[in-house]
Amino acid sequence: MPVALPIVDIYGKYKLPENLQLHMLRVAALAQYISKNWSGPPINTQMLIRVLLVHDIGNIVKIESGSEEFKRVQEKTLARFGKDDHRVTAAIAKELGFSMEEVELLNNKIFVENESTFASNDYNRKIAAYADQRVAPTGVMQLSERLHEAKERYKDKPGSSMNNPRTDSLITYALKIERQIQQFCRITLESISDVTIAADLENLKEYRLLCPS
Fold it and tell me: Left if phi > 0, otherwise alpha if psi is -120 to 50, otherwise beta: which for 145?
């Protein structure tokens, strides 16, 4: 029988490194902070939080270092789901009881879909994409700074979503998405920082998801 566990316990089950846990918590907290200050079209805050708390969990298959225990979990995950981290994320989300709508949001909010996210009327998708793209490995950054930092970091990794002929165009669409969100937000998006989301982040550590036994 599935049991409801705090998200940090689920992270522990998959032996996720602390930096990956913190990234997903930051992204979910940023989206939650926006939702508290939202005055626009209806959004589904619970779906946003659920999706963003696991949005990079599939990275488990591409982490190159870790304990022997982590490597055993990684090998097991690779054997079950393959090496495509996006597909692994979707598969684990389904294991955790996510709906098809939630899995679709996971798949659509990614950087390479920024143009269609901008054109979409779905503000869940816009906020999910924006929150993820604001958070660097070191924490919350301004959007343009964050995306150009990522472009520089991945410049020697062909095939990366941040290293393709459309990267500059996708960054432009990210900034357009920010403006779309800003028009319905009661706070200035640029004011969001690690400090402003700290309380939300701590509270989300206790957010419960159904986990297979």
Answer: alpha
Which residues, other chains included, contact 96 with Cβ-Cβ below 8 Å and sequence gap of 6+?
10, 54, 209, 210, 211, 212
Q: Is 48 exposed, middle or buried, given 0-12, 13-18 or 19+ CB atoms closer than 10 A? A: buried
Nearest to 40 by CA among 183, 188, 187: 183
CATH class of residue range 3-211: mainly alpha
User: Each residue of 106-165: pLDDT tens digit?
Assistant: 999 999 999 999 999 999 999 999 999 999 999 999 999 999 988 888 777 766 777 788
- Sequence length of the chain is 213
Contact in structure between 150 and 138 (CB atoms under 8 Å) = no
Instruction: Output DSSP code: residue 99.
Output: -
pTM to 2 decimals? 0.94
**Beta carbons within 10 angstroms of residue 22's beta carbon:** 16
